[in-house]
Amino acid sequence: MFRIINFTTLIRSVAIATTILTLLIYAAAERWLPQIAPSIRVFSIGPWVALMLTFAITSRFTSRAIWGGARFVSGSLYPDLNGVWLGEIQPNTGSPIEAAAVIRQALLNTEIDLHTPTTKSLTLEATPAMSAGQYKLYYTYQAKPKQIGWSAYTGSTIFDVRTVNDNGKATLELSGFYYTERETKGRIRLRQVGIDPNKDVSYY
Questions:
Q1: What span, in angstroms and rounded, lies between the C-alpha atoms of 69 and 161?
Q2: What residues does each domain of the chain span?
Q3: Is the pLDDT reported for residue 1 higher than 50?
Q4: Are 18 and 53 spatial neighbours (Cβ–Cβ below 8 Å)?
Q5: DSSP output for 36-102
Q6: What is the pTM of this model?
Q7: What is the pLDDT of residues 63-74, one digit of tens each?
Q8: CATH, domain range 83-194
Q9: What does the alpha-carbon distance between residue 86 and residue 194 come to, in Å, rounded to a whole number?
Q10: Engineering a disulfide at 141: which of 121, 137, 167, 183 sits with its beta carbon 3.0 to 4.6 angstroms away?
């Protein structure tokens, strides 16, 4: 299993970027502000650059920009799942249930809010992974029924993450079997319909 970007690679990249940016800033100061350049030490710039880069990779907005650039260079990088997803849940018994989800994903964490007309599920753990060349998303959640007096329960799903053709448009899809501690099971399928992770898709 891995996070969106291999953590070791990420730390090494930040260290390299910190060094390069520090030297560039110092060189720029020597050229454009020669009167104050002697008072600026390379080692005094480095911590501020490291702090800036740390905020950049941990903020969802800036990390998505970094992520997009990395995916442009390497198309094999894990896809960006941020946004709104619509689909259905097919229990092993009974009729299909409509479902909507919002996924908020950064380089180091993933959160899924999954809603149906009767239940909302919040993330306990969501881990991107790759198995046999196939993108996966391991998802463990706590479901809270709308009905007052009904107790919450936990469940888990292993999603296949794939790109499908939806009316001539390449669309991301999540599909997989789910199991709950109430001994219910079934299949869930969701397709990405928007990229804004701040939408409200709750039913109640």
A1: 20
A2: 7-58, 83-194
A3: no
A4: yes
A5: TGGG--HHHHHHHHHHHHHHHHHSHHHHHHHHHHHHHH-TTSPP---EEEEEEEEESSS--EEEEEE
A6: 0.74
A7: 777 777 777 777
A8: 2.40.128
A9: 9
A10: 121
